[in-house]
Amino acid sequence: MIKNKSICVVVPAYNEEKLIGKVINTMPDFVDKIIVVDDNSSDNTVEIVKKYSSKNPDKFKLICHEVNQGVGAAIASGYKKAAELEYDITVVMAGDAQMDPNDLPRIVAPIVEKKADYVKGNRLFRGESWDMIPHYRYLGNSILSFFTKIASGYWHIADSQAGYTAISLAPLKKIDIDSIYKRYGMPNDLLITLNINNYVVKDVHIKPIYNIGERSGIKLHNVIPSISLLLIKGFFKRMLLKYVIRDFHPLILFYLLAFISLPCSLFFLFRTIYLYFILGSVPPTSFLLFWFLIISGFQSLFFAMWFDMDYNKNLK
Length: 316
Prior knowledge:
Elements: E1 7-13, H1 20-25, E2 33-38, H2 45-55, E3 60-64, H3 71-85, E4 89-92, H4 104-112, E5 118-122, H5 129-132, H6 135-152, E6 165-168, H7 169-174, H8 186-196, E7 201-205, H9 220-245, H10 251-279, H11 284-311
Parallel strand pairs: 1-2, 1-4, 2-3, 5-7
Antiparallel strand pairs: 4-6, 5-6
Helix pairs in contact: 6-9, 8-9, 10-11
């Protein structure tokens, strides 16, 4: 416990026999419950966890999936059990030991102090991050983080793919955990859901840990398209629920104008280029329409984003 707040840590694990013991051994003493969710590992992960659990059965809970469902599903199983047991704060720490236990007090502090409902780690803004994180993952994460800002409405957050998080009991019991994306895009989808429900989210800088024997099954060429589609769907869902159904806001009109103007500007751009090569001259009407549409489109887009930032300024 910290200041009378009970702490539960969910540890999603898949084939982590080499590092799961390190995660458990380095867990801070103030953690009240450790829920390990094995996502149908084919190695000795379950047996190792059972050895620790037998020594302190009150502190451990092991959940085993019969089929592999993905890291998001493993976290969801842990979340549901933590909500059932009504722990005040539930933290997610992966079973690959890439999350520094020394950062855990700072991860939970904003919730303990009632300054946030959800806290996530941010590995990108430390001075050494560029040298410690594989460059392709750093860049891929940065791109996904930018689009997650737009989709989620949490413009102040970065490192959207960081799995080191903490959530308070209230949102954990309110949101539909089963509806959250079940694989690598879960943090992105969860942020969108939290924003729809107006929960406060904070970023906390954490230490990136790599090259300790962990194995990553993430392939950016597969992950980026799937998460991009997830973000597009989540964006329109948030716009509909938050700014149309619950409280109509003019930013919807600005986004709509941008989504009409920008594609139309491309039509007149291609038409201008085509006629230039066919006729040898540029029709002034098409040229003027291109510039009018692209300028008005970007202006509308930036106004919509600014309105969204302003509307959500109290959620940081």
